[in-house]
Design a protein that fits this description.
The complex is a heterodimer of chains A (520) and B (316). By secondary structure, chain A is of the alpha+beta class. Helices cover 26% and strands 22% of the residues of chain A. In chain A, the strands form five sheets. In chain A, strands 1, 2, 11, 12, 13, 14, 15, 16, 17, 18, 19 and 20 form a twelve-stranded mixed β-sheet that branches. A four-stranded antiparallel β-sheet of chain A has the order 6-7-9-8, with helices on one face. In chain A, 60% of the residues are buried. The chains are: A alpha+beta (520), B mainly alpha (316).
Chain lengths: 520, 316
């Protein structure tokens, strides 16, 4: 009810989704992803208006897909627009408007044939639209979110081979070009579009009406290339309070409530008015330790932190059991995740020995936190208790929630961290290279940079997999990101709603997607 | 002092107050950590990107420059554009104000007759059973915070019994299209003002009925109804009007708790969102509106009180 709680529920999707802490004690960490009740079953049925409740950005929100930042903006963008490619359930890249992407021998030019698709006003989606959209995103005078991801493309040297083929020139060889096409916010808009008051895209729903901060009404686009949506209409309504979304669902004012707390899921587990869909591996939860300054420039102390952490306890308390333990690596369940590295278990004796060796016994360590994502404040306090058991004095420090991410990027020594889904390559390039602009752990290792450079400039898929594995082994042994868990993302629907996919970590294509959803 | 001179003086004072408030709000917003660029960047706080956003939004200009630009615009009736959506601030305010004004008007429409009626009823037999019952209920309601009452009403009448919609989601900008959504918010908004207004009315009536001039009116043989309505009530109403002004002001500012629980996108929600986003022009615009409302409502109340009981108001 407090303002803090309200804002927490509409956290920015950072290259990753905000993660609401997750779940049901008892169903616990071993419970498979999926539905508690029956949403998703049955035969698709055509027709009807689905009303979905999301937290929103208030009266200042926008329908410009390149500005999409919040959950509801991300969902609306994929309802109205398409990207050339998008993230599949394991965050591998699925073609969308692109039929595929083929490189030249040195991976510096990529040929992308386009699917036969039309915008809502009947015009075909052409190579010129793709190039214009990317030019808009990478405009040097603007600051769209996908700009950094697309900066690899040399647009002046790129060209439309014909109306349905684009040839992209890159500034350097890059094997994971699909990751660029699927970048968060890299939507295709008709060439020359600057106003999004009545947006026209190529997506499954067309624009009907919009009241910023209140509601958006969309209608089925019958000519959608991926098959017309089951629903006649889709209405987004804004309810910032989680309790209000659930109340609206219970009273039949909406059929779908996005981003539900584990407490709610538990309260209504046996209630047949509500079906909960649980999307596993949606949100990494962890702590960053800065490697470029004391005390975490000491490797022994970092290892002690890894070993003192009782991950199971954090998952059970902070996430109410709605998630799985982490192994100090990003991307559990995603393509290229190194699941051959053994799970780290608590070892307090060894942690104490390492702390002694580091001369850190009784050390005071400030841990930055803020109510910027669900569970942050709780995680800091639980972790402080765990550290006390081995003689470390971890002190949670509350930061301002609106500016938290900027503050903890360069300041402090340790901070609560979370991330939504993105390819492991993207995670590395944005956060773990010497040149990365959001390197919160200050992990800067020339050898690691070289491994990355070799991997992404190699056309050999097996070699790349090997390199990603080696990089993850380095990070696991020596890195500054303590990943204690992966939270499930929870949504609630009425039992009449079918087709909500549980195999869709937050930020992937099928998450918050409604063209495959129906009303029974 | 003549009513006109009093009005002009108060209006000039009001302009000064609004100017002062916007300056203070601007300084306070500047004092918050971070700016709109940092908030927009969110958890991708790439310093280069933040610098670029800052440049685009003219946030790289010195604060005094931005404040003067804004003030110059305001003098021409231009509230500026939102830093976040780039839409005109005024449009946004008008949209948000619609729900707030509607809710406030509906509340006042029920509140005034009900509270004054209850106060007079209680004053009829001071210390009687009815008086004590009304007082007990009113004080009891006053003791319940709005958010607790709101959650309780939603749980019981919205979700459990299903008599009224628990939220206003999907109603659209015009809440009157579905009047049932107003019922629960109205009950919450009424709970506390009913107490304060009915208690003030009661106290004022009790005092007035004991006064010399009402006793005189009785000696002159005036009927009870006339004594109450024409002689006692106007005197009793002066403090009630002042309190009513505070209530109106509170309602027109947008009661954030009620807006949040019932999902009514009014001015309170808009202000909280704008502050969180460090959307300075929107915050400033909203503060101007709220400050002007406060000045106007209080001035109106003082003028009414002046008419009702010239001695008390004139002394102010």
């Amino acid at each position: 009810m407090s303002t803090a709680a309200r804002l927490r529920r509409r956290t920015l999707l950072g290259g990753g989704a905000a993660v609401t802490a997750a779940l049901l004690a008892g169903c616990g960490a071993d419970a498979p992803a999926g539905s508690d009740n029956v949403a998703g079953s049955g035969t698709p049925k055509r027709g009807g208006r689905l009303r979905v409740a999301f937290a929103g950005g208030g009266a200042t929100e926008s329908l410009d897909p390149h500005l999409a930042n919040l959950f509801n903006e991300a969902s609306r963008a994929k309802a109205i627009f398409d990207k050339l490619a998008d993230y599949g359930p394991d965050v591998s890249i699925q073609p969308r408007l692109a039929l595929g992407w083929e490189p030249n021998a040195d991976l510096t030019r990529w040929r992308v044939p386009l699917r036969e698709a039309t915008f809502h006003d009947g015009r075909p989606v052409r190579a010129a639209d793709v190039l214009a959209s990317y030019a808009r995103i990478t405009d040097p005078d603007r600051a769209f979110r996908a700009k950094a991801s697309l900066s690899l493309i040399d647009l002046r040297a790129s060209r439309a081979v014909d109306d349905r083929t684009v040839e992209f020139a890159l500034t350097r060889p890059f094997a994971e070009f699909g990751n660029v096409l699927a970048a968060f916010g890299a939507y295709i808009v008709p060439k020359g579009t600057e106003s999004f008051d009545r947006p026209i895209g190529s997506g499954p729903f067309t624009f009907s009406s919009f009241t910023p901060g209140t509601s958006l009404l969309l209608a089925r686009y019958p000519d959608y290339w991926d098959g017309a949506a089951h629903l006649d209409e889709l209405e987004y309504v804004i309810a910032n309070e989680e309790s209000a979304r659930v109340n609206a669902l219970l009273a039949g004012q909406v059929e779908y409530a996005h981003d539900i707390s584990p407490t709610t899921a538990r309260s209504y587990a046996a209630d047949d008015r509500i079906a909960i869909t649980r999307m596993a591996n949606s949100g990494l939860q962890g702590f960053t330790m800065k490697l470029d300054r004391p005390p975490f420039d000491n490797r022994d102390l970092r290892e002690a932190m890894f070993l003192l952490t009782d991950r199971q306890q954090l998952v059970e308390t902070v996430l109410s059991g709605s998630g799985q333990v982490g192994n100090d690596l990003f991307g559990k369940g995603y393509q290229y995740y190194a699941d051959d590295i053994p799970q780290r278990e608590p070892d307090l004796d060894r942690a104490r020995a390492l702390i002694d060796r580091a001369g850190a016994s009784g050390l005071r360590i400030p841990l930055d936190t803020a109510p910027v994502a669900a569970g942050f404040v709780e995680a800091a306090s639980v972790f402080a208790d765990q550290a006390r058991a081995v003689g470390l004095n971890v002190e949670p420090v509350q930061r301002n929630k609106d500016t938290y991410w900027r503050e903890v990027l360069d300041n402090g020594v340790m901070a609560c961290f979370r991330s939504g889904a993105m390819p492991i390559e993207t995670h590395i390039s944005q956060r773990l290279l010497s040149t990365s602009t959001t390197n919160a752990t200050k992990w800067m290792r020339p050898k690691f940079d070289d491994l990355y450079a070799t991997a992404v400039s190699s056309a050999d898929e097996a070699g790349r997999r090997q390199a990603y594995g080696d990089m993850q082994r380095m990070l696991h042994a020596d890195g500054g990101l303590l990943v204690w868990g992966f939270a499930d993302f929870l949504v609630a629907t009425t039992p009449q709603v079918g087709g909500v996919s549980a195999d869709a970590p937050a930020n992937t294509l099928d998450w918050a997607r409604f063209d495959k959803v129906w009303l029974a | 002092m003549s009513l006109t001179r009093y009005t002009v003086r108060r209006l000039l004072l009001g302009v000064g107050q609004v100017a002062g408030i916007t300056t203070i709000v601007f300084v306070l917003t500047e004092a918050l950590p971070g700016d709109a660029a940092v908030v927009i960047a969110g958890d991708q706080p790439d310093p280069e990107r933040i610098a670029l956003i800052r440049e685009q939004l003219d946030l790289d200009q010195p604060p005094w420059q931005r404040y003067l630009d804004w003030l110059a615009g305001l003098l021409h009736g231009d509230f500026g554009v939102s830093l976040i959506s780039q839409r005109p601030v005024l449009d946004m305010i008008v949209g948000s104000a619609a729900a707030t004004v509607l809710l406030a008007a509906a509340t006042l429409l029920v509140l005034v007759p009900l509270a004054i009626g209850l106060g007079m009823l209680a004053a009829r037999r001071e210390g009687g059973r009815l008086d004590r019952a009304i007082s007990a209920v009113a004080v009891g309601l006053y003791a319940v915070p709005e958010f607790a009452l709101a959650i309780l009403l939603v749980a019981v009448f919205g979700v459990q019994l299903g008599w009224f919609p628990p939220t206003a989601v999907g109603t659209g900008p015009n809440l009157l299209a579905q009047p049932a959504v107003l019922v629960l918010p109205l009950l919450v908004l009424l709970a506390r003002p009913i107490c304060s207004l009915s208690r003030l009315t009661r106290a004022g009536m009790v005092d007035a009925l004991r006064s010399e001039y009402v006793a005189h009116a009785r000696r002159l043989g005036l009927g009870a109804g006339r004594r109450w309505l024409a002689h006692a009530l106007p005197t009793a109403a002066a403090p009630v009007v002042q309190q009513l002004a505070r209530t109106t002001d509170w309602l027109l500012g947008g009661v954030i708790v009620v807006e949040a629980v019932f999902v009514i996108p009014g001015l309170g929600t808009a202000l909280v969102d704008a502050v969180a986003a460090r959307d300075v022009p929107t915050v400033q615009g909203l503060c101007v509106i709220v400050a002007v409302t406060t000045v106007v409502v209080n001035l109106a109340a003082d003028l009414v009180a002046f008419r009702l009981a010239p001695r008390t108001a004139g002394a102010r």
